[in-house]
Amino acid sequence: MAVDTLLERITDQANRPDPYPLYAELREAGVARQTDGSYLVGTYYDIVSLFHDPRLSSDRRNRAAPYRGLEAEEPEQMLPFIRLDDPEHHRLRSLATRPFGPPHSPDRIDSMRGEIAAITEELLASFHGRTRIDIVDDFAYPLPVTVICRLLGVPREDEPVFREWSGAIIDSVDIRPGEDPTERQRAGIQARAQMGRYLADLADQRRGRPGDDMLSAFVNDPDPAGALTHEELAATAVLLLVAGHETTVNLITNGVLTLLRHRDQLDRLRREPDLMPGAVEELLRYEPPVHMLQRTPLAHVDVAGTTIPKGVPVVLVLASGSRDPKRFRDPDRFDPARQDNRHLGFGSGIHICYGAPLARVEAQIALSALLPHLSTATLAEDPPPYRHSAVLRGPRHLPIEL
Ligand code: HEM
């Protein structure tokens, strides 16, 4: 089949349950130019080298005119740092890290372990007496939502308020070749503005009256070097709230699905609980929540014998790179004890996932606590129904019989 339709086939909802044969086709093709003009890259070493190449921009305003959507017109101060390049990206990421990780808050995530375990236990208690549950709605979604709400200082009961905004934002970053993205982008911009106002208002209420949450820390940092402007705070808080749960839900759900498909490994993890951190890394390689990311070359860039022109979007298919047989031995095998597992699940380079330490802790605690419930459980539907997004891929529901 023609490689120039690979992106269409990869993003086709019908292929969501198993895009991996298409990724093998992509790696075979090397760099593949698509009918919409964009380029696809799916081999591990090419993706890593592009992630570390400063000529590859995360700022969509650098796209050439035909590829520039509504989002390219957005004012700089509204953009979250995931969509900016250095030095602006570095400045904002460093400020956002002050209340989250080293060097200012080295224990922040570790100190949440007890709380994460308590939230997990509470959710598991709700399984009692039930014979059928939906892993997504009953467990994998509420857990990271509750955690990120606590961390940021967002009232948990406001979830119905921000759920719709979050959905619109996720939709706006999806890749759907052949579809006019204007409406999705308009809805995404509007949702980010509304969520930003909501979060900035919450932060304002804590000015001078700080709690132990990150919004409080953002508006009460005594060091003037730690100050975010009102717009920067709004854009950063939106990024953290959305990125903080929309991905982790897929990691936990993909984890349950994979373990129920590999019962020998499930039993092994029960016998050898110390394997869990490695199992989570293997899940990030084998069934990652983020399948692809986009970049824009600031100059003509040569990749594996193909010149990608300046301004033309490049799609880096991380989930393909993490299954590249030139990098991983027996890549289609799920092996929780795999050594040498430098997967691309959290990206690489300057934008490597900021929340990775939290995501790891959440997934390790959640899956460890679930294991005893899974030993007699069965999948009610395999494959399960998937969320629409091809970029953030994961089941919409995962019904299991207990
Ligand atoms: C399993 C869960 C997660 C996965 C698979 C994941 C994956 C990723 C990936 C692949 C990137 C790179 C984006 C790029 O290069 O353009 C990224 C960036 C980011 N992630 Fe995560 N993430 C997860 C959880 C989290 C959590 C829990 C948070 C927040 C607490 C978070 C916050 C961020 C932020 C702020 C960025 C932007 C970093 C930057 O631009 O420098 N993520 N994530």
UniProtKB/TrEMBL annotation:
Coiled-coil portions: none
One matching Pfam family: p450
Membrane-spanning intervals of the chain: none
Keywords: Heme, Iron, Metal-binding, Monooxygenase, Oxidoreductase
Gene3D superfamilies registered for this protein in UniProt: Cytochrome P450
CDD domains: CYP164-like
GO molecular function: heme binding; iron ion binding; monooxygenase activity; oxidoreductase activity, acting on paired donors, with incorporation or reduction of molecular oxygen
Family assignment from sequence similarity: Belongs to the cytochrome P450 family.
PANTHER family: CYTOCHROME P450 YJIB-RELATED, P450, PUTATIVE (EUROFUNG)-RELATED
Protein name in the entry: Cytochrome P450
Source species of the chain: Streptomyces acidicola
Lineage of source species: Bacteria, Bacillati, Actinomycetota, Actinomycetes, Kitasatosporales
